[in-house]
Design goal:
- This protein has one domain (28-241).
- Helices cover 52% and strands 14% of the residues.
- The protein contains 13 helices and eight strands.
- Helix 2 crosses helix 3 (52-59) and helix 4 packs parallel to helix 13 (226-242).
- It is globular.
- The two termini are 32 Å apart.
- The model has no long low-confidence stretch (mean pLDDT 95).
- Bound molecules: uridine-5'-diphosphate.
């Protein structure tokens, strides 16, 4: 693993095609390996740059996957192009479909109570072969109670939606108490449950999902300023490396 890592402002991405990545995950599920998947976007790359502990946690994960066109553009600008963007949401859907096919145990953690309830219902309805062993919203006070529940139920896959960096810190701290595929899925349950809509196909095709999210939730504007800042830093990095 990690033969072809591409470094973008300190975050080391795996350069896989989505097909390769899915094959690795499928083997991991079959072998019941303990794995940690992180799907950084430009905002996370910047926050890792300012938080050494977060950066080490990301770089020690088993899979660091380029979520967002900004990462692909950054890699190209730096002269180390990557195969393709692989979104956190698509990875979540792949894991859920595979869990359904393989009849695996799944645990959902995070998001608001009504969102996680609706996500659990959708799993029961649309993916009936999944053994949904437990779920809990993301507004708990006591980590240990949650971890004890996960350990008792032995899920093969733990989907964690606490937002970044909280979800990555949580997974890094507890993953070895239960061998599973652990992934931080950010706001994906909001979409999976139907509470929020994913951008229409045309926005996805044009890599304008960020614009759709901005139109829907203008309060995200502050967070989106991360993207131009990120591109400026990538260009500065490129210039520096040419000196
Ligand atoms: N969240 C949570 N517990 C917290 C903070 C956030 O469960 O203490 C959830 C929140 O409800 C949302 C997700 O984490 O479902 C984060 O969503 P956001 O859109 O910020 O994530 P992104 O995909 O942008 O990383």
């Amino acid at each position: 693993m990690h033969k072809n890592r591409v470094n973008i402002l300190g975050t080391e991405f795996d350069n896989y095609t989505e097909k390769q990545f899915h094959k690795y995950l499928s083997d991991d599920m079959d072998g019941r390996s303990n794995r940690f998947i992180v799907t950084p976007n430009p905002e996370i790359v910047l926050s890792a740059r300012e938080n050494q502990e977060f950066s080490s946690i990301i770089n020690s994960a088993d899979y660091v996957i380029p979520d967002g066109i900004g990462i692909i553009k950054g890699a190209k600008t730096l002269g180390t192009p990557m195969h393709e963007r692989i979104t956190g949401f698509d990875t979540l859907m792949f894991l859920i479909k595979a869990a359904n096919r393989k009849q695996l145990k799944v645990y959902l953690l995070g998001a608001k109570p009504e969102v996680i309830e609706a996500s659990a219902k959708r799993i029961e309805r649309d993916f009936p072969e999944i053994d949904l062993v437990g779920y809990h919203d993301g507004y708990f006070k006591n980590d240990q109670e949650i971890v004890d529940d996960i350990v008792a139920k032995k899920p093969n896959i733990v989907l964690v939606a606490l937002g970044s960096p909280k979800q990555e810190f949580f997974i890094d701290k507890y993953r070895y108490q239960n061998d599973a595929i652990w992934i931080g899925v950010g706001g994906s349950f909001d979409v999976f449950s139907g509470t929020k809509k994913r951008a229409p196909k045309i926005f996805q095709k044009l890599s304008l999902e960020w614009l759709y999210r901005l139109l829907k939730e203008p309060t995200r504007f502050g967070r989106m300023l991360a993207i131009p800042k990120y591109m400026r830093l990538v260009k500065a990095e490129k210039k520096n490396s040419e000196k």
